[in-house]
Every structure is written in structure tokens, then in C-alpha cells.
């Protein structure tokens, strides 16, 4: 797909002219296309081809690893991401914890896999994706997100039934939308990352029809985000917009004001936000909610503050499935509880490095039509990291995978900047 602001194969990044980098290109492109369409592909396969639905992403990762290995053996040496080194340190530490927990090998291995699996897709991207192909994948990802956002809005119109546990006591909402991600919290996290990128593409686009499609799609994604009634996603997007606005584009603060006014005057949203400041919410949170769950993370450190309780033993899906712990409702608390202060520091270092690299490589180098796309991508990255403070967002495979894919694709896309002439028309 060709487009002036994202770049095309006609404006090629030529860092390595060797044919080795093109080995398996079509196969790799098909695999990465499936990954950026993960929510729809995974939902469809699990619904209609269940045995394949549980293993397809592992097969895709294996294929990409083989393509990457083949290219490397033929002499291809792409520039890896700067955050790869920090990921390497974190994974090395997880391997050490894995061996420390061999007394319960099943739990330790499941915890290890859960913590590092989705990261591998981001690490392999430079070896299997050419920078000039990154725009195509961004188009596929945003097109799918727009369809999911529209589906969420339709769910609200149709008042799709939801479990009673999705609504607080005394709260009255028509429904909480969830689309193919099967959870309003998971859909909210997905929308908070993709909506800013889609809107950025809309502002960057010169073609009037495509601009309207992107802006309308971004609008539906924002509406779907509101209709998930996921406060963590609202918080993440709000903080992301404010931080990016203060650092790079003050005009974005108007967006925060508009969204704040909308939220204040819409009763269901107003009630859901103000409920956070009620005495009832504080009591519930202290007895069995987020406050007591966060406190439990520190309790896990009592025996081993540096290394934690062990992989898979606290705060996440593995610990919950094995009856060892409830969800921490804070991914950083989960990391702290199971891998200690050392694990938390390494985890923070990894994601701080990701944000810094996106700022340095994408945002600061983006000019003209590239600028709103870069800012939208950064807002989505920050939003998801903030959302992790109040929820285990990285426990959702679709969102953790999407995070590393979008980071990787934005960084690869930025490598085309030097080879393009900016079109200001």
C-alpha cells in the first residue's frame, strides 16, 4: 500500500543491499500480518478451529525465528533496537530465577514463559521486517483496530448482555463493550494504544477520503474506549496525552479538556470516575480490592526482597491458575512480588529505554506529516505503561504482543525518514 506520509517501497531504506535480507520475505510478511491482526485471528481460530487457536502464534514465532536464522547465516546483520540489550538483561535474570525455582519446575517455567514470550516477537522484528514494509503493517493494524472500535460501538447500541460482575454495586450502565477481545478491560487497553495512532494518521493524511476514514475510525475507537467503562484505560490515555502535550505539543491539552468535559456531563462516566473518591470504594478496595492486593506484593518480599517469591508465584495468570495468588491489579506489583527489587529495576529499565528510544528515533526525527503519527504512537505506548499501574495489562496476550509490535514497527518506520523527501503539499 502506498502513501505519502508513511512512505512506500519507492522510497526505500537501503541500509543493506545484500540479497540475504530478502530471504523468506513473503513468508515473513504473511506471518507478521497475522500478528498485527492478532485480536481477530486469535478470536476466529479459538472460536472455530480451537486446536489451532491455542498454538498458531507459537508456529508463527517459530517460522519467523527460522527466517531470521536463515538470513543471519547468509550474512544479514540488521541494526537491532537499542532496547534489545535491556530485554536481554531482563530475560537473563528471568532465566536465573527459572533455575532457582526448579523445586517447582512447572510453575517456574510457566511464569518464565508468561513474562518473556511476547517480547520475543518484538526482538525478532528487525531480522524479518524491512523498514519500507513497516507502513503496510501499521495500516493493517490500524484498519483492524478501527473495525474493532466500530464493533464495540455496535455492541453498545445493541445492549449486548454482560456478566453482573462487570458492573459495580449501585452502578447502572447500558452495557460494557468488549468486542473480540472478550473483556472490556482488555478492549480498553487495546483502544488506548491504537486510537492515538489512528487519529495521528488522520491528521497526517493529505487525501481527503482517507483522512475522513482515519478520523472517523479514530472517533469510533475513542467512543468504544469510553464505553468499555475501564477507568484504567481512561487514566492511561489521559496521562499519555498530557505528558506528550507538555513535552512536544501543547495544543494536545485541548483534547484533555474536551474529554474531561464530556466525561463530567455524561452520567455513567461521571459516576464511574467519582466513585473512586467515595468512602465505599476505599473500604471495598482495602478489604479485597486493589489496595490490599498491592500490599500483598510487599508481603511477598518478606522472605527475599531482592529476588521475590519466584516466577509464577504471585500476582498473575499463572499464580491464579495454580491457586497461589489472586491477580495483583498492578503489573509492576506482580513483577515486584515474583521477581523482587532486582526484577522490578530491570523491568523498569527496559520500558524506560523503549520510551526513550521512541522519543529519540521516532518523535524527534519526525517532521511534517510524520509528526502526528509519531506523537500518536508515543501516546499509546505511555498510555499502556500507565494503565499497568492499576491493572495487569501485560497479562493480556493481545495487548502485550501489540505493544511490542507497535514499538518495533514505529522504530523500523523511522529508519525510512532519512531516505524520504518530505512532501508538504
From TrEMBL:
Residues 219-348 form the O-antigen ligase-related domain. The chain crosses the membrane at residues 86-105, 111-129, 136-158, 211-227, 253-270, 331-352, 373-390, 396-413. The keyword Metal-binding does not apply. It holds the Pfam family Wzy_C. Keywords: Membrane, Transmembrane, Transmembrane helix. InterPro entries: O-antigen_ligase-rel_domated (IPR007016), WaaL-like (IPR051533). It is found in: Membrane. One of its GO terms (cellular component) is membrane. It is a multi-pass membrane protein. This is O-antigen polymerase. It comes from Alicyclobacillus acidocaldarius subsp. acidocaldarius (strain ATCC 27009 / DSM 446 / BCRC 14685 / JCM 5260 / KCTC 1825 / NBRC 15652 / NCIMB 11725 / NRRL B-14509 / 104-IA).
